[in-house]
Amino acid sequence: MLTSDFDFDLPRALIAQSPAVPRDRARLLRVAPSLSDHRISDLTDLLRPGDLLVTNDTKVIPARLRGRRIAPPNPAGRGEAEVELTLHKNLGEPSAGAQSQPSEGATWQAFARPAKRLQPGDKIVFAEDLDARVENKSSGGEVTLTFSSGGAALLTKLERIGIMPLPPYIKREATGKPRDRRDYQTIFAAQPGAVAAPTAGLHFTPSLLNALEKRDVKRCPLTLHVGAGTFLPVKSDDPREHKMHTEYGVLSEEAVQTIAQTKADGGRVVAVGTTALRLLESACDQAGQLQAFQGDTDIFILPGYRFQCVDLLLTNFHLPRSTLFMLVSAFAGLGPMKAAYTHAIANGYRFYSYGDACLLSREDQV
Predict the structure, then answer these.
(1) Angstrom distances, CA of residue 39 to CA of 22, 45, 101, 349
(2) Which of 95, 140, 189, 356 is buried most, with the most CB atoms less than 10 Å from its CB?
(3) What's this model's pTM, rounded to 2 decimal places?
(4) What angle (nearest 5°) sits at the alpha carbon of residue 244, between those of residues 177 and 343?
(5) Residue 98, pLDDT above cutoff 70
(6) How many CB atoms lie within 10 A of CB 98?
(7) Secondary structure class of 340 (helix, strand, coil)
(8) E strand or H helix that includes residue 144
(9) Helix (H, G, I), strand (E, B) or coil at 99
(10) For residue 178, is the peptide bond before it cis, meaning its omega torsion is within 30 degrees of 0?
């Protein structure tokens, strides 16, 4: 298996810069048992009574910050410098460790630009009432910060001064667009902590949810706080050498029971997005039984993986050579996914976060 196996050419014109209006008018490619073109609103026909949508209720925070570095006195004479940071992983309070609830923490990992301007001990001032200390610095432009505020106070300040952390392929001015605060948030968003949207959820509208409810398609939530690591490219020739960033997730006992009852009644579990799928698969024990879950996951799903829980996957179109294209290839088969992407490109589907979607069946269930 090589990373190049998951490569394809995508015209830049197909990279969506804004969502469809209304959201459920986005296009939907049904991949199996054969390719067919639809709209998201057609989910009412493509799903069956008794199916269960598992949605990610994470809420994106304005995690991109612009600040001024103030270096401590030292012989090198380093002074002030402008820096930009994108928070990607909440480590909790300094003494709490990675298992803290993400909404409670003051210590974060972040990607810095330019990282060469920062050293441990530096202070970064973001506003009169918010600054952070650089605790350490690692390779790849990553730093660990402890903020002067934590918990709800920090989230409130981020809402005031932060910028929505759009992925790099969505082109914006340095300060972003005000409407992205609404556009880059799903209808399910409730638990603050993500620094990237679970983009399959962006397609849902109140009218579509009402129609699905009338169809007797049920719904239950989980939480996976998506990190900016989701956009990191796979640089090694062998994808198995790629290191995944961890993300914090919660799957309740109530959700576990709902999923178990759905399967017992003959319904299908439909993951809304790769984030929902990754947490569900992380929560399965060695015997394949779904268990309640709270903690970090760094699951990396490649072809050959045996899926335990999810029957259908609703997901956007992903980047070439990415961990997410590898995941969907594991789920539906590399051949079918390459055929689906060739069809999507030839027919002008829009790609990535604000783009269109596809509905996939598990390769071993087709």
Answers:
(1) 11, 11, 37, 11
(2) 356
(3) 0.90
(4) 65
(5) no
(6) 16
(7) helix
(8) strand 142-147
(9) coil
(10) no
What secondary structure does DSSP assign to 25-82, as a single string?
A: GSEEEE-SSS-EEEEGGGHHHHS-TT-EEEEE-EEE---EEEEEEEPPS-TT---EEE
Q: Convert the pLDDT of each residue in 29-45 to its tens digit.
A: 999 878 999 999 999 99
- Report the Cα–Cα distance between both ends of the chain, in Å, rounded: 23
What residues contact residue 304 under an 8 Å CB cut-off, 6+ apart? Answer: 330
Residue 294, C-beta contacts closer than 8 angstroms, at least 6 positions apart: 99, 249, 250, 251
Per-residue HEC secondary structure of 223-266 comes to EEECCHHHHCCCCCCCHHHCCCCCEEEEECHHHHHHHHHHHHCC
The Cα–Cα gap between 49 and 151 comes to: 41
What pLDDT sits at residue 105?
A: 64
For 179-227, how does the pLDDT look when each residue is reduced to its tens digit (9 = 90+)?
Answer: 999 999 999 999 998 999 999 999 999 999 999 999 999 999 999 999 8
Q: Tokens 């996951």 — which residue?
A: 297
Q: Nearest-5° angle of CA 110, CA 355, CA 47?
A: 110
Q: Encode burial over 247-268: b for 16+ CB neighbours within 10 A, e otherwise.
A: bbbbbeeebbebbeebeeeebb
- Report how far apart, in Å, the C-alpha atoms of 237 and of each of 2, 132, 241, 277, 342 are: 6, 37, 8, 25, 23
Q: What are phi and psi of 351, to 5 degrees?
A: -110, 160
In the DSSP assignment, the letter for residue 313 is E
Maximal C-alpha separation, the chain: 71
Q: Is the pLDDT of residue 272 over 70?
A: yes
Nearest to 89 by CA among 199, 231, 324, 246: 246
Amino acid type, 155: L
pLDDT number for residue 76:
58
